Structure formats: C-alpha cells, structure tokens
Amino acid sequence: MQYKSCQWVNRGIEFRTDSLRLCCYGYLQGRETEHQTIIKENYHGEFLNSNEIFEIKQKYKEMHKKGEYLDACKDCIYLYEKDWDDENYINHFTFNHWTKCNCNCSYCYTREDKKAFNSYKEYPLYPIIKDMFKKGMIKHTDEACVIFGGGEPTILHEFDKLIDLFLVNGCKNIRINSSGIKYSKSIEKGLKLGAISLVISTDAGCRETYEKIKQVKTYKKVWENIRKYAKAAGNNNLLKVKYILYPPINDNYVEIDKWFDEIVKNGVKAVSLSVEQHWYNENQPDFTPEIYKQIEYMKERSKKLGLDLEIYCEALAVLK
Ligand code: SF4
Ligand code: SF4
Is 170 left (phi over 0), alpha (psi -120 to 50) or beta? Predict the structure, then answer.
C-alpha cells in the first residue's frame, strides 16, 4: 500500500542501555517528544518476543496508513512515500546498548559523568541477535542496515562476534561510528569486503583543536589509523571522515581548510558533515546565517576536491 512512512517504523529497532526503541532519531523533533519512539521500557537484554514487537510496530504502521504520526515523527526527514509491504521483519538495527568509550568528546552525552558511563556493563547482545535470526525475525533486503552507535564499538566485548554474525548472514551494510583510536581488524576486513562503512569524527584539522574537543591526546594515532582504513577501503568510499561543526570551537574557515588538508594527505575519499547536537537543539529553528555559509562552504570544497560528501541528519535538518 502506498503511504508516507519510514524504514524504522516498518523494519527498525534500536537497542539502548535501558530500552528498545523504533529508532534513534526522535530527538530531531525535540527532546520533549523523543520518548514516544520507545517500544519497551526497562529493557536490559532479555530475548525478544516477536509477536509483542511486531504488534507494537503494526500499531504505528496503521497510524501512518491513515496519515497520522507521533509528534516525534511528524516532520522527520526519514519519512517518505512508497509502496510499503505488510510483512513483519526487522532489518534496520541501531546498537546503542553501551556507553563506554576510549575518547572524551566535550559534546558527548556521556560528558556529564564520564566515569559512570565508562563503568556501565553492557548486556550481552550477541545471543539476542542470534535468537532473532533463529526465530526468523530478521530478513535481509537491499535496504537493510546495521548501525553501531555507542560508546566506542571497537572496545565492545562482542564486537568481532557481532560483525561476523551479520557478515555470515549476508549483511552488506554495517555502519560503524568509531573514535578511530583503536584499530580494528574486523573493520578492516569489512571495508575490504565492501560490507562495512566506517565514520570517524575528527572535527579538527590540527592537534590543538582536536584535543580541545576530544580531550584525549590521540590526534596523530587517529589520522594514522584513518590512513590504514583508507587503504583498506580503496576507492569504495566506505570510509568517511566526519566534521561536526561545533560553535564556537571549530566553526571557522582556517580549521575547516586544515581539516581538508588532512583528508587529502591521508588518502580519504569521502567525508561527512554534521552540526553538533546540543547546539542544534538549543538553536533550532533559528540557526545563525554563518552555519548555513559554513555548510555551503564545506559542500563546495568537497566538490572541488572530488570527495564524496554525506550530509548528516542535523546538518540536513538545518538546511531543511
Ligand atoms: S519517522 Fe523518524 S523519528 Fe519516527 S520512527 Fe521514523 S525515523 Fe524514527
Ligand atoms: S567518540 Fe562518540 S561515544 Fe566517544 S566520547 Fe566521542 S561522542 Fe562520545
């Protein structure tokens, strides 16, 4: 049936530290309504009951068929019109079930209490996903995707096992956000196979700004790892290095230019651009004219350098 909906209501699931959600994008419409995308509260790694999950998702699908949307979804950039089938399966995953990280970004939600966030133990996810495959809850289509958010995925206990499980089951679209501090052979393998896309946010083109934002002394190491990943990715654009515009720390043209120099020097073929989430939430919908100019400037520079550019959801929402 033809109607406006999104992949996440139809096929998606997000695993958080304490809940299951439809997706991780509810915040784009504002923090007040974000909780509406919760499928199950107080979730801490129990096996999933497929009837229960699909019944909840069906409720939202029926709403969309009637042109009704949660406030969290109303203006979402991921809604679009198409002929949606009514089959029940999951093939969009976001893993946000752990918070430990080897980096210390000043814009990270974990900054409030880094020590606590780094000490939480994640629930074992591998048996749950394995069980979902066994129960036939997962079906791979061309649109399928698996997204690792976190926390830092490469320090996750089950990281290599989870990657293998999805690769063995034919998933070719695993998206990983990493600090880039720890080099991962699993990621290297996935890049070579063309099944993993990797995003590393450096947000800076010099050590000083990097350390101001990231609060770790790993600038050189990260760019060394980026260079190795770029080699593994070859010409397939599966490695993206990201710049999160973070006023007032890195939203200047000198820093942006230095960052583009590092991109070229280290053989990166694709970049990603975003706007820092807290700044986005505090300033929406009246963004400064400067942020539009900088986004346009980065688009222009990427084009001139022949780089593939992905504009991330916050920056897309600014432009919208
Ligand atoms: S419409 Fe947007 S916020 Fe709502 S479930 Fe879909 S992706 Fe998530
Ligand atoms: S790399 Fe990600 S998870 Fe780690 S501190 Fe930075 S924003 Fe937070």
Answer: left
Residue pointed to by tokens 């293998």? 164
| 279: containing domain | 89-319
What pLDDT band is residue 249 in, cutting at 50, 70 and 90? very high
**Can you give the pLDDT at residue 205?**
96
What's the structural domain count of the chain?
Answer: 2
User: Is pLDDT of 141 > 90?
Assistant: no
Q: Are residues 230 and 266 in the same domain?
A: yes
**Are residues 133 and 240 both part of a single domain?**
yes
**Distance of alpha carbon 176 from the chain centroid:** 7
Is 39 touching ligand 1 by the criterion CB < 6 Å?
A: no
Residue 79 in contact with ligand 1 by CB distance below 6 A: yes
Nearest-CA residue for ligand 2 atom 2 is: 151
The span from the CA of 255 to the CA of 258, in Å, is: 5
Half-sphere exposure at residue 45, Cβ-oriented, CA atoms within 13 angstroms? 10
pLDDT tens digits, one per residue of 15-30: 999 999 999 988 777 7
- CA 78 / ligand 1 centre spacing (Å): 6
Mark whether 72 and 170 lie in a shared domain.
Answer: no
What's the CA-to-centroid distance between 102 and ligand 2, angstroms?
8
Domain boundary among 69, 88, 107: 88
Q: DSSP assignment of 104-148, as one string?
A: --TTSGGGGGHHHHHHPPPPP-HHHHHHHHHTT-B---TT-EEEE
- 262: domain CATH number? 3.20.20.70
113 C-beta neighbours (distance < 10 Å), count = 9
